[in-house]
TrEMBL record:
Organism superkingdom: Eukaryota
Family: Belongs to the sterol desaturase family.
InterPro entries for this protein: Fatty_acid_hydroxylase, Sterol_Desaturase_Related
BP terms from Gene Ontology: 4-alpha-methyl-delta7-sterol oxidation; sterol biosynthetic process
Keyword rRNA-binding: no
Organism annotation: Selaginella moellendorffii (Spikemoss)
Protein name stated in the entry: Fatty acid hydroxylase domain-containing protein
Cellular component aspect of the GO annotation: endoplasmic reticulum membrane
Protein keywords: Membrane, Transmembrane, Transmembrane helix
Fatty acid hydroxylase domain segment(s): 112-246
Pfam families (UniProt xref): FA_hydroxylase (PF04116)
Positions of transmembrane segments: 20-43, 67-87, 107-125, 161-186
Length: 265
């Protein structure tokens, strides 16, 4: 007897084409996960919740509204077309939506691989965006929010969306995964970047349990410094910044905070 997921999946693949599912379907999944995970952090700012807040200041309602309106524009005019035009590459590399589903081991291996590839490509692309000309004309848009909140994770210049978006789709594009793997990868990647920009360092944050995971505290440091001194360029993990010494300022600050905490005790 088919599982509920398989039954729902059969309905999708029998009523929609691969192209529709991979483009419009992926867009709907992305928007749903992005806004449902990001809006709670926006509301926390609106309600003035300061406990666990990394920075003391909050964004104004006008700044929050500007972010949301720009996101709706960029997602519709940049993200959606990108999903449409990338479909042929996915199809050529073996993308499929048919049953049976891939094994959970295959899905897990591919998503972990995508994270590693994305983090490597993103690190170097992000460092390039922090060179003087590109920062001034492109990346400074993302840094308009020195105090980030979840939804600012995808607030960026259209050129940057395309440039760094390549890091996200590179892994799936060269492996042609099953559609369910693509949707899972997209979902966990969105959840990760929203959390990294949320502005809150909770006791249950993943960075407290997984040493190589960056998280909100790691990325918040990047946003509140001048572009030439920020460091912390990686998207998900911390080892690239550690290897190339671009997290020295952050590690020094953490060490000073630990020393101050010990003195208080």
């Amino acid at each position: 007897m088919a599982s509920a997921l398989e039954t729902a999946w059969l309905y999708l693949i029998n009523n929609f084409s691969d192209f529709q599912l991979a483009s419009l379907g992926s867009f709907i999944i992305h928007e749903s996960v992005f806004f449902l995970s990001g809006i709670p952090y926006l509301m926390m700012e609106k309600w003035g919740m300061t406990k666990y807040k990394i920075q003391g200041k909050m964004n104004t309602p006008a700044a929050q509204e500007k972010c949301i309106l720009r996101l709706l524009l960029y997602h519709t005019c940049v993200n959606l077309p990108l999903m449409v035009v990338s479909y042929p590459a996915f199809k050529y590399m073996g993308f499929r939506s048919t049953l049976p589903f891939p094994s959970w081991k295959t899905v897990l291996f591919q998503i972990v691989s995508y994270f590693i590839l994305e983090d490597f490509i993103f690190y170097w692309g992000h460092r390039v965006l922090h060179t003087k000309w590109l920062y001034k004309h492109v990346h400074s848009v993302h840094h308009e929010y020195a105090t980030p909140f979840g939804l600012t994770s995808e607030y960026a210049h259209p050129a940057e969306i395309l440039f760094l978006g390549f890091a996200t789709i590179f892994g799936p594009a060269i492996t042609g995964p099953h559609l369910i793997t693509l949707w899972l990868w997209m979902s966990v990647r969105v959840l990760e970047t929203v959390e990294a920009h949320c502005g809150y360092d909770f006791p249950w944050s993943l960075s407290r349990f997984l040493p190589i995971y960056g998280g909100a505290d790691f990325h918040d440091y990047h946003h509140r410094l001048l572009f030439t001194k920020s460091g912390n360029y990686a998207s998900t993990f911390t080892y690239m910044d550690w290897i190339f010494g671009t997290d020295k300022g952050y590690r020094k600050l953490k060490a000073l905070k630990c020393e101050d905490a010990k003195k208080v005790e």
